[in-house]
Automatic annotation (TrEMBL):
Stretches assigned to the Major facilitator superfamily (MFS) profile domain: 4-379
InterPro entries recorded: MFS, MFS_dom, MFS_Efflux_Transporters, MFS_trans_sf
A Pfam cross-reference name: MFS_1
Keyword Transmembrane appears in the UniProt entry: yes
Location(s) in or outside the cell: Cell membrane
Cross-referenced SUPFAM superfamilies: MFS general substrate transporter
Organism field: Streptomyces spectabilis
Gene Ontology, cellular component aspect: plasma membrane
Protein name: DHA1 family inner membrane transport protein
Length: 403
């Protein structure tokens, strides 16, 4: 494994920790700022929307500099946002800090996915992408539970100081280990935008929004669901998040392995099973053991979709993958934002803390329908399907294989 993949995974670890740790700290943050749990959910929604906006914006701004330098600048922005969250005197400032940190998220994973794919042979692209994303999944086994524990025991502000320190480690890792790969010749912002003429790119991104949204409809409100419905103590949420993280690690590795062999069948199985498990979660949430098992399955099935969806976007946007890759990361977080919002709506409407699970099941099932549609269109038209005609053919990028 190239050491550069390790550096990308380190950066992903820090970003993954700050993205998910807030879910275990919603009650503490809500109580400190004297807001409701659904209102505190805007810390999840705001972060996700920041990723959606930041992914194309930061990627576009970085087209004139090397990918390595852009990755370093993004980590600096991430550090600043987490420090602002740590010292926020009011809820609005806290939301602002989350948004600042989130601006780095989409572009880091988007550019990082392209770099990871260029570091290995073509038949190992999904595995390389999965290796980078392993930092995000491991964050949910180590970083998020530890951050939740520290936040509950010492204070949530100290958690964000620790996250900022993780960002510093990630910045140093990128600076020391990621090679300064030459930029592809003839690739401009206009050229990158041309990838969005491909219907398959748009369908893959829609699957990303709906499928990943299904996961976060349930997981965003995991703390009140487990304490108020399943009967767990607040301190037990830390270990439930560990279980979710272990599921994420397993799912990410499985998704990366099979996406290089049978990408679409991997999506069919993972999305279909995810929709079923989320629907069942409305029942298993009332039992401690059953809910814990379900949380593992949600993590595994949700993240089994990540490598195949990211690889599909890279494949379909061949020749201009950087912006499309970053926007797809934004699509993951658009799903997070919509799911957190819909979940808050059904809770506020009085349907209870398990109601977001039904929202998630519907979203995941919708993603499965789009996967079948995408495959059907591909069978009917083997050549890339364009939204409009007359697009300039995009040259294939050179892929440097490092073993």
């Amino acid at each position: 494994m190239p050491l550069a993949l390790l550096a990308l995974a380190i950066g992903a670890f820090g970003i993954g920790t700050t993205e998910f740790v807030i879910m275990g700290l919603l009650p503490e943050v809500a109580g400190d700022f004297d807001v409701s749990i659904p209102t505190a959910g805007f810390l999840v929604t705001g972060y996700a929307l920041g990723v959606v906006l930041g992914a194309p914006l930061m990627t576009a701004l970085g087209t004139r500099i090397s990918r390595k330098r852009m990755l370093m600048l993004l980590m600096g922005l991430f550090i600043a946002g987490n420090l602002l969250s740590a010292v926020a005197p009011a809820f609005g400032v806290m939301v602002a800090g989350r948004v600042v940190a989130s601006l780095a998220h989409g572009a880091f994973f988007g550019i990082g996915s392209v770099v990871a794919a260029e570091l290995v042979a073509p038949e190992k692209k999904a595995g390389a992408i999965a290796t980078m994303f392993s930092g995000l999944t491991v964050a949910n086994v180590v970083g998020v539970p530890l951050g939740t524990f520290v936040g509950q025991a010492i204070g949530w502000r100290f958690t964000f100081v620790i996250v900022a320190a993780l960002g510093v480690v990630g910045l140093v890792g990128v600076a020391k280990l990621v090679p300064d790969l030459p930029k592809p010749e003839g690739v401009s912002l206009r050229h990158e935008i041309s990838a969005f003429r491909n219907v398959q790119v748009l369908l893959a991104m829609a699957m990303t929004v709906l499928g990943f949204g299904g996961v976060f409809a349930a997981i965003t409100y995991i703390t009140p669901m487990m304490t108020e419905v399943a009967g767990y103590s607040e301190s037990s949420v830390t270990w439930l998040l560990v279980l979710f993280g272990l599921g994420m690690v397993a799912g990410n590795l499985i998704g990366g392995r099979f996406a290089d062999r049978a990408l679409m069948p991997m999506l069919y199985v993972s999305l279909g099973a995810l929709a079923l498990v989320l629907a069942v979660f409305t029942l298993t949430a009332h039992n401690k053991i059953a809910s814990a098992v379900t949380i593992v399955l949600i993590g595994a099935l949700g993240f089994a979709t990540v490598p195949p969806l990211q690889k599909r976007v890279l494949d379909q946007a061949s020749g201009a993958p950087t912006l499309a890759s970053a926007v797809n990361i934004g699509a993951f977080n658009l799903g997070n934002a919509l799911a957190a919002w819909f979940g808050g709506i059904v809770i506020s409407a009085g349907f209870g803390y398990t109601a977001p699970n039904w929202v998630g099941a519907v979203l995941a099932a919708s993603a499965l329908v789009l996967a079948f549609l995408s495959a059907a269109l591909e069978r009917r038209s083997p050549a890339p399907t364009k939204v409009v005609t007359g697009a300039t053919p995009m040259p294939e990028p050179a892929v440097a294989a490092h073993r």
